[in-house]
Amino acid sequence: MKQEISYDKTTKKIYKLPCQQCSGKTNHVVLSSIEQHWTNDENDIEEWDNFEIIGCRGCNDISFRRTSSCTEDQIFNEQIGEIILPETEKLFPNRVIGRQQIKELYLIPPEVVRIYKETHDALCAGLNILAGVGIRILIESICRRKKAQGKNLKIKINNLVSKGVLTQKGASILHKTRLLGNKTAHKGSPPPDDHLNVAIDIVENLLQTVYIIPNKTKKLKKI
């Protein structure tokens, strides 16, 4: 294989990408880049790897973009009548449009925060099985911290209602999230993206209800 390396070929180029700080997609400018280009000895196969340091033009957050392509993957697009070369894109840190971590994590116990962050990271990285299992572990962690009683997670969630931590309606919603985690853990099948996003929304609402809002209320009482 022959290798060529080029520097800053895409510098100052603008991409529309999801930002881990802003909401939705924003313009990102390439600050620096390296391209690696390979050809085989017969010169009939080519591969490209592009590595780019990018900066969001909205919040100035710095991240990393990597793209890869190979002539062996080229396909004929019938709509435009041309051969196109698909490109694989990865962003670091991983992120999903509109899926930011909740704020004020300092009001949540460190054990719970760690599980939440790892679950959030798994979701953003497209690791749906790990994210589904993480959601269940997160619920179990909250139950453990609140000393919920019961031989299984279903009973423990119901016990949170008896303790006044959750409303009955809140528990019913949480049970649906528990079932998603169960199915993922026992069958090893990845939940669909839309199901996971709803489940994360529910768990984030639980964190708000159990930890963040009560801690904020305590501060108001001191005023």
What does this structure look like?
With 223 residues, the protein is α+β, with helices and mostly antiparallel strands. The protein has two domains: 2-92, no CATH class; 105-221, Four Helix Bundle (Hemerythrin (Met), subunit A) (Up-down Bundle). It is built from five helices and eight strands. Strands 1, 2, 3, 4, 5 and 8 form a six-stranded antiparallel sheet that branches. A two-stranded antiparallel sheet has the order 6-7. A hairpin with a 6-residue loop joins strand 2 and strand 3 (25-39). Helix 1 (110-124) runs antiparallel to helix 2 (128-145) and helix 2 (128-145) crosses helix 4.
How would the blueprint of this fold be written?
Layout: E1 2-7, E2 14-18, E3 25-39, E4 46-56, E5 62-70, E6 75-77, E7 82-84, E8 88-92, H1 110-124, H2 128-145, H3 153-162, H4 168-187, H5 193-221
Antiparallel strand pairs: 1-3, 2-3, 3-4, 4-5, 5-8, 6-7
Helix pairs in contact: 1-2, 2-4, 2-5, 3-4, 4-5
CATH architecture of the largest domain: Up-down Bundle
Count of alpha/pi helices: 5
**Which spans have pLDDT < 50 for at least 5 consecutive residues?**
none
CATH classification, class level of the largest domain: Mainly Alpha
**Run of helices and strands:** EEEEEEEEHHHHH
Quick rundown:
By secondary structure, this protein is of the alpha+beta class.
Question: What structural keywords apply?
Answer:
223 residues, alpha+beta, Four Helix Bundle (Hemerythrin (Met), subunit A), 2 domains, 6-stranded antiparallel beta sheet
